[in-house]
């Protein structure tokens, strides 16, 4: 059965569906970077409110600034922007169709349709999932990358920008001129202080072309920090097959785990839906929640995926079952990361490690190592290296953290333990591969990538641990090195 508004009443028995009249929904949110995660997470929270007859004037309009976004637009518009969510609980599978999204703006060079949509006074929130690496930051220190080609383009072409941030600036400018007031910019990406980073990117870019507008945005626009959490695998043939087994022809279904968390700073300059009524946590202390999640869950993903790729393990679930990788994950996080993670209400760092261990081991979730390992050039500096720097400063154990970084260097060498080729899996793969091969004979060449490691190469304790680990990985192999680490006390 082809998914559409007309067929909602004919969905197979047991499939939850919108109980609200979608024809009466009006837009309040534009979401840029509309992929699987957004539809399984933020759009789901809004759908739950709509199921209660609330937030009917907050419907989502999808948007994007990349070529693949146009393909997603085509698929979703063909099914009235409906999405089948399939929950992969270890105890069984359930599904529902969500309808909180009602349109998707055309994806065009210069972003004219996107700017026009965001300029509409009805839009009060513009949210983003543009990936951790999509905020134009210098990976060595997190500062604004003013010399990036995209930023240079938008600074000289502010009315026909290339980036999502340039489009946001153009829309805020139009709203200021029309006297309709600003919209909130809400980052939903895995970044420490994601709202603060979004603010700095938008204001810094605006300042390159219009200082007065930059000051107005900085003073008037809200950029709430938030922590988001839900494991959402990529959609492939097996996910398409799952939804068809349920009796639904959905060209863009989403599978997800049976867990969600959304912690949001309550700072919205133009109002917001009452997300707390469907399970979101509104707090002024987002930092502690996001630090726990980024340093344990997101960093933990890299701890699993790098050796998993080297040893040819296909899924995160498979890594957790592996006799070396699963214990390696638990030991590094418990011994070397947890001491630098503060507790949140009702949850210690070790409790959180236990929770994510169960989630990662869910056999229903086919989350691929390749997806999780993608863009290590953003994820290692964002998720792992802050803990490395804290451990160096506090003189706490670093052997496992150094080994994780050595595993990343070994993975970027481009071959697995069995000699098979690792296909490029990073926007910076060519440069990383070149340095990784040089580091085979000169391990310090890897740490001397100051755009990632900053001054860590000058710390003798960390540099020695990394050098020994990388040399060992090339000489004796991944399994032997992991086994040695696991045999150590403490």
Automatic annotation (TrEMBL):
GO terms for molecular function: oxidoreductase activity, acting on the CH-OH group of donors, NAD or NADP as acceptor. Keywords: Oxidoreductase. Residues 28-276 form the Mannitol dehydrogenase N-terminal domain. It comes from the Bacteria. Residues 285-474 form the Mannitol dehydrogenase C-terminal domain. The keyword Oxidoreductase applies. This is Mannitol dehydrogenase family protein. It comes from Palleronia pontilimi. The lineage of its organism: Bacteria, Pseudomonadati, Pseudomonadota, Alphaproteobacteria, Rhodobacterales.
């Amino acid at each position: 059965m082809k998914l559409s508004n007309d067929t909602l009443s004919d969905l197979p028995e047991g499939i939850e569906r919108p109980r609200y009249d979608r024809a009466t929904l009006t837009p309040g949110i534009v979401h840029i970077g509309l992929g699987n995660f957004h539809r399984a997470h933020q759009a789901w929270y809004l759908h739950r409110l709509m199921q209660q007859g609330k937030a009917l004037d907050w419907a989502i309009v999808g948007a994007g600034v990349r070529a693949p976004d146009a393909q997603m637009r085509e698929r979703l518009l063909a099914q009235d922007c409906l999405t089948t969510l399939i929950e992969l609980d270890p105890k069984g599978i359930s599904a529902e169709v969500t309808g909180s999204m009602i349109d998707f703006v055309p994806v065009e060079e210069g972003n004219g349709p996107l700017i026009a949509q965001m300029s509409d006074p009805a839009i009060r929130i513009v949210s983003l999932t543009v990936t951790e690496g999509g905020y134009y930051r210098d990976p060595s220190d997190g500062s604004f990358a003013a010399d990036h080609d995209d930023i240079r383009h938008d600074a000289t072409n502010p009315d026909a920008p290339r980036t999502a941030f340039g489009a946001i600036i153009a829309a805020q400018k139009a709203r200021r001129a029309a006297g309709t007031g600003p919209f909130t910019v809400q980052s939903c990406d895995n970044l420490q202080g994601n709202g603060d980073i979004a603010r700095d990117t938008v204001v810094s870019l605006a300042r390159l072309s219009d200082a007065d507008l930059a000051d107005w945005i900085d003073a008037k626009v809200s950029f709430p920090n938030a922590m988001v959490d839900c494991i959402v695998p990529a959609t492939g043939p097996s996910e398409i097959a799952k939804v068809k087994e349920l009796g639904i022809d959905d060209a863009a279904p989403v599978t997800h785990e049976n867990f969600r968390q959304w912690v949001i700073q309550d700072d919205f300059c133009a109002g917001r839906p009452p997300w707390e009524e469907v399970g979101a946590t509104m707090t002024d202390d987002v930092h502690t929640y996001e630090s726990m999640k980024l340093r344990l869950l997101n960093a933990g993903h890299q701890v699993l995926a790098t050796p998993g790729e080297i040893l040819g393990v296909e899924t995160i679930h498979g890594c957790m079952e592996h006799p070396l990788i699963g214990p390696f994950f638990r030991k590094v996080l418990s011994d070397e990361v947890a001491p630098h993670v503060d507790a949140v209400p009702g949850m210690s760092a070790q409790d959180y490690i236990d929770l994510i261990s169960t989630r990662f081991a869910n056999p229903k979730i086919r989350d691929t190592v390749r997806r999780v390992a993608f863009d290590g050039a953003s994820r290692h500096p964002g998720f792992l290296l802050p803990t490395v720097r804290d451990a160096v400063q506090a003189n706490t154990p670093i052997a496992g953290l150094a080994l994780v970084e050595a595993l990343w260097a070994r993975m970027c060498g481009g071959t697995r333990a069995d000699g098979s080729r690792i296909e490029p899996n990073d926007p910076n793969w060519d440069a990383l591969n070149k340095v990784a091969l040089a580091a085979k004979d000169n391990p310090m060449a890897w740490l001397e990538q100051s755009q990632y490691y900053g001054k860590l190469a000058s710390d003798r304790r960390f540099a020695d641990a990394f050098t020994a680990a990388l040399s060992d990985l090339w000489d004796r192999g991944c399994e032997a090195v992991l086994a040695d680490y696991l045999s150590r006390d403490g």
